Amino acid sequence: MNMRSRITTLAALVVAVVAQAPLAQAQAQQDDGGRIARETSYPLIAEGRWPGKRLRDGQPDVEGFYSNTIGNHGNWVKPGRAPSRVTDPADGQIPYQPWARAKQKDFAANFSNPTKPEYIEPLARCAPGGVPKSFVWHGFEIRQYPGYVVLLFDSGSRVIHLDGKPQLPDSVKLWNGGSRGHWEGNTLLVDVRNTNGKALLGRQGDFIGPNAVIAERYIFAPDGGRFNYVVTVTDPETFTRPWTSTIPVRRYTEQDKPDNWNYWVVAANLPGKPLVHEHVERICVENNGPFGGGAVGVPFDGPLILR
Amino acid sequence: MRRFRTPGALLVLAMTVTMAMVPALGADKIPRLPSGKPDFSGIWQTTSPADYDLEPHAGRRDAPPGAGVVEGGTIPYLPDALAQRQHNFDRRAALDPRLKCWALGVPRNVYYPEPFQIFQRDRDLTLLHQFGHQVRTIYTNGSLHPQEQDQGFFLGDSRGRWEGDTLVVDVNDFIDETWLDRAGNFHSDKLHVVERWKYLDANTIEYRATLDDSEVYSRPWAITVNLFRNRDKNAQIIEDYCFTYEYDPFYPPRKE
Fold this sequence. Notes:
The complex is a heterodimer. By secondary structure, chain A is α+β, with helices and mostly antiparallel strands. In chain A, 16% of the residues lie in helices and 23% in strands. In chain A, the strands form two sheets. In chain A, strands 1-3-4-5-6-7-8-9-10 form a nine-stranded mixed barrel. In chain A, strands 11-12 form a two-stranded antiparallel ribbon. The longest helix of chain A has 17 residues, at 2-18. The two termini of chain A are 34 Å apart. By secondary structure, chain B is α+β, with helices and mostly antiparallel strands. Chain B has a single domain, classed as Lipocalin. The longest helix of chain B is centred in the N-terminal third of the chain and has 21 residues, at 7-27. The model of chain B is unreliable at 1-25 (pLDDT under 50). The interface between A and B is large, with 61 and 54 residues.
């Protein structure tokens, strides 16, 4: 139900924006109460041959709904309920340059009581989740077409070009960047450039600079039931060395119960036919005046565009 | 009988026959999915000034002139609704929801002057609009509108079916917060849209939409615009999350 879905979004945003201890705790209990069975460890998936179905253009057929298995979208490195998403270096920390570490800590210290606009998580203002944060946010859908893989996230969408179209010039900066990919066996390799550096990795201020080169590998298990998202970030302006994160992801199908978080779908109205789940319209800014607008310091007092 | 003997009538008859044949000839060359259905995949955009004003209008400070895309010329508003439209028109520089980068609604996002890309499978079409990076799914898997109505979608609920080579899409369950153009033309949450998507040739789609809304209009009415395939070398949809521009300058963290 759409209205309920919107309310869920708002509830999540309340936590994102207000982040006061009692609310955050309640959210955690709700999370642990069955909305998602979180994994504290996950299997590695080897890169290799794809034995499964293929689409008409030869791509491995991986269409469907997915969500990460570890939750914990609030931070990127903190171990506990989830292992640190950073898998290299081995200490699980992001190897910031000193200036960037100071910025991260400054955001973390001010997130719960923001006194300046830059201390507000952009996602709470309905901005796209960005790369790679989108993969630890709500569930998402993969749709494939000749020449393209399309990712529909809860906040924002990405088109991965497999068609050989060159990247845009470096001067063009985008929330989700530009994505150019190709398949090697069971692995989708994607070169991401042109990110604007504005989408945070969580609520602790972790970020990736606007001139990063991001290399993604989506390594699909032979049965198609899950994939590991392995992302390597090279950005000498912001980090002392390249680093890698891994997000385990599982597939959701009609066998699974929709939960308005990891598997945010509804049953299609197909009388007399087998159950089919479908994506629900995602809106945010249209429904988010008090949260993405006034309450977090973006009063709407005029046109946002002049065209 | 006499009128069929005149050369003029014969000419009209001949032209009618010829024109009727054009789609049939074009139909052999349009892109098709392996299933045989027309394949509308591609990047599309109208050249019409429909988004400035659906009705005929002279040029003005905020709009180029346009001959109008409404069949019959004007929208058949009920009296109260006509007054509301005038109010909207007078305050359009402040009230048009597009200025907030809200989802434009249907059919406005089809004739909005920015490109959109269609991705198509047998079971659905995904429309990715550059403006706001809005996504609409048109289901063609035989599914009906949800039993639960009054959900108030910005882009409506779209269920498509094929009539020959024409994709007919029934769209309902709208919210009343979108406009139809920059001139303040509007609808209520009772809006019901029937779209007809049809190839005129491999690079041109004729898009026709019938709008029915008993709270705002005295009868159903229709628009027609053509959509042209963008064949520019660098054509691509570039994300335009324009609702982020207000807070865009606050990020990212910068080295001081």
